[in-house]
Predict the 3D structure of the following.
Amino acid sequence: MLKKLVAVIAVLALLLALPALLSESMLNASVQMLIAALFATAFALLCGQAGMLSFGHAAYFGLGAFATVHAMNAFGGDGLLPTPLMPLAGAAIGLISGLGAGYFSTQRTGTYFAMITLALAELLHALAPHLKEVFGGEAGISSFRMPAWGFEFGSTIEIYYLVLGWTVLCIALLWGLTLTPFGRLVLGLRENSHRLKFLGYNTHALGTFVFALSAAFAGVAGALQALNIEAANYVVLETQVSTAVLLNTFIGGAKVFFGPAIGAAAMTFFGHVTSDLTRSWLLYQGIIFMLVMMYLPRGIVGEILARFRGEGGAVNPVAVLARFAGILVAAAGFVMAIELTQRFFSTDYKAARQAGGWPAVEFAGHMWAPFAPLTWALPIVLIAAGLGLVTFINRREARRQEAQI
Amino acid sequence: MEQIVFALLNGVIYGLLLFMVSAGLTLIFGMMGVLNFAHASFYMVGAYLAYTLQPVTGFWLAIILAPLLVAGLGIFVERFVLRRVHAYGHAHELLVTFGLSVVIAEVIKMFYGNFPVDYSVPSDLNFSAFALGGMEYPFYRLFMGGVAVVMFAVLYLMLTRTRVGIVVRAAIYRPRMVEALGHNVPMVFMAIFGIGAFLAGLAGAIAGAFYTTNPNMALELGVVVFVVVVVGGLGSMEGAMLASIIIGVMNSLAVGVNVSLADVLARVGLGDWARETGGILTLQLSSLAATLPFFLMLLVLLVRPSGLLGEKE
């Protein structure tokens, strides 16, 4: 417990000190990371703790964003609430829409539930362009932050602290929720809802309420996003938003409380860093997600925690390092193959070919010709070497464990 | 009058196409309990493969080869991806196929770009089948409907009249018993997955030429197919058929109707108020056509949560 407390305080101190350490653009990325972390944690309340897989959480995120923009524009721009309290508008609309959507979707469980959430989100996404007054059509709705409580809310630093405050508060609330009897009931809903029903609990009402809570916190995340960019567009209702939060949550580990937040922050960070380098970030994210689902079913954070608890036997640091090196080498080869393919099939390349011939493309500081053997041999050799190393270590470890028994 | 006939015909044919995709989905679900999120992606892959093969092999060979390749992809996915995560439960399988759909969409974008490709009906099939009241009806639509009907006749006969069909149906009903009787059930599952993928790929190869072929087609169709499956009742083939046709006809009829809630309210004298309020009250039904399936789904969930022909939970 003490260890946890120290860790939490250390992370908080680091987050508070960040504006002094980072550049403007990295601070902006940190704001995005915090929002993604809050969104993923809210999402995990539903899909990790209550075991209800939602494919349409963009709806509540987006509604929160639009509600906030409308609240900011209310009374001729004076705002419904002082700027720091704006996310309450997002929370309110998230809660209300979550109650409605949750009532329908929790009629069914499992796969049906997932399909209904997807359909509800698509319904909103299909309606939004037609409702110009509410969603602002193609252009979206913009607004600006009013000064309040002696702050201008003009600089990135001020908005960083605002977002940090809300994110920490909401994640703390969600954490507190897991400690209450209600939090235990939510876990019961995941593990055995039939039994809960037998014990006399109203599982439909419980499910609806969990859904609404999750939607409310997602709404806060959407509100923070709207405050950050001072606008909202119906793009936030698109499936990509739902997809991103789902991938982030499960890459981190949906059933560990801080897994989703860490996963979302890490993925957003990588997305930001690689956005200048690659156009295929979503592809990598999808592949990472599939690999995590296939080989690390508890998510990256979940598996690391399980190792710390001593599950799966003693850890041999040399083997772990060797595996890690093998994966890195294979990943390098794979990224190279993908990036080269992407460049050879891009529209830029088609334009370059108009001049005739098959020009080489630039990757990692070198030029690669499309039909040179080395261009394709190098990634293949890297992938084979990396995977070979991992397989070799796995076999050796398996033999060692057998010998011990 | 002619318009209504045409709209009905279009609707039924669109419904048949929907059924072609949802049949495989519901078959796989009934058998393995896996809702394959990537199923609509197979539809998209079918369209893109046919588009790629067409210049080399010609249209006819392309629409046969593309679904076969998609079936191969389906078998690969079942054998090496789904079977691996089977032990972690159904939610996990759903998530993996969801990840797969993301990866497939991104790979398609990588090779073909994030815009529609020029895959169109070959010119020797691009003629009108008949004319009614001065309007011509494209032959290709009838062709799509015909292929769908033939596929179903074959599938139905195979499932009900052959020995293989008996094993398959038994494997859906009692997989362990069938395994105990010495049949290779994982093999049957793999084959069914392949057939489902083949059907989706065929639908894509044929429909892609008529509708647009773009990287979003999987998602657009996928959502409707999931609605079909929920409305019809998961795992029920007849339900999927019924729901497909209903949604197809409903969609194509709604496109031609320019009525808004305000017009309805005008009948009871509230028209002016509704027009002033605006928003959802003045939206034309035709512009809402894309959202109608979702409303139907919500209605079905309220009235009959297990779907039109689904069994009670």
The two ends of chain B are 43 Å apart (CA to CA).
